[in-house]
Amino acid sequence: MTERRRAAAINADSGEQHDVRLDYAAAAPDAIEAMRGLELVVESSTLEPLLVELVKVRASQINGCAYCLDMHTKDARAIGEDEQRLHLVAVWREAPSFTPRERAALAWTEALTLLPETGAPDDVYAAMAAEFDPPEQVALTLAIVAINGWNRLAVGFRTPAGTYVSHRHPEPSAVR
Q: Which domain holds residue 24?
């Protein structure tokens, strides 16, 4: 195994360092293409890129995925998200800086990420449906499905965090 592939990852539960278990992209490139297909559907939707990044950050926080959290906080900053808001994503219910649409998306993210515990409650769905039209509801749900999948790949195979560099740029109307 090369030195790069032996980069240490941190086990969130024990604090122990572990070697990367598997380079899943090299092992199954078709699987990565399939996951990328979900991302392309979301990217081609009318969902705001900053909202999608908030969703990815929140799911990654819940799932304890350091790699994805590193990636999506950097991507959010690169496209114009305010650093203070990123600090508050974990406590979005108490933070006044999130819009009703963002709150609905974050609540739906939590409900689907924690599906065994929540069962996707009707009130959370109703709040989300009030903010998003049907195609957006599907795109938002696919964004949540995708990030939960990426989180499971990165956590399960111990992808190390900290080296990601964003190549995204702000959209003129998205800069905060």
A: 8-156
